Amino acid sequence: MGPTPPSSAGALVLDANVVIAISSKETGRDALATTEITNYVNSGYRLYSPGVIVAETLYVLCRKKTNGSLSLSDYATAIATFERVMASVMPPPDGDISLIQRAEQIGSGYGCSRSADGIYIALAEQLTATGPTELFTFDRGCANQAAANAPRVTVKVLR
Q: Where are the domains of the chain?
């Protein structure tokens, strides 16, 4: 059985750094990401992300609380916002397990710090087989990794 079609309009894969920006209200990034995502959703795109987004986002939000860039109150708000955002994000149609081998191939040669990027890229590649798909990120390195290893994947680096 192949992947379930994302929607007639397409799919938008959200990198953790985009969700972190929205959740923690990062100056400049929050409004940009929210506006871009809203435009895609209003055009009928569905939002997707692999399960690793939860661990990555919780870790970064915790670090922001620990280093003082988020107060306890702002941290609580960020967690609530994260939960609200994720309520509209779909998991990989064939589950995270379907991404493991391809993510490892995509990440080969990039070192451990880029291993999670391979999962997002593998998901975008999988969804591309069913219709228009874009991967949203603030990370230029992720775009470079996709271009080198998954050229069918369209990566939009938010600026």
A: 10-157
Domain 10-157 has CATH 3.40.50.1010: yes
- Judged against a pLDDT cut of 90, whether residue 108 lies above it is answered with no
The band of 1, judged by pLDDT with boundaries at 50, 70 and 90, is very low
The pLDDT, as a whole number, for residue 44 is 95
Reported pTM: 0.92
Question: DSSP H helical segments within 24-136, as ranges?
Answer: 29-42, 52-66, 72-86, 100-107, 115-128
Helix axis angle, 29-42 relative to 16-23, nearest 10°?
Answer: 110
List the beta bridge partners of residue 13.
48, 135
**CA angle, 148 then 151 then 156, to 5°:** 95
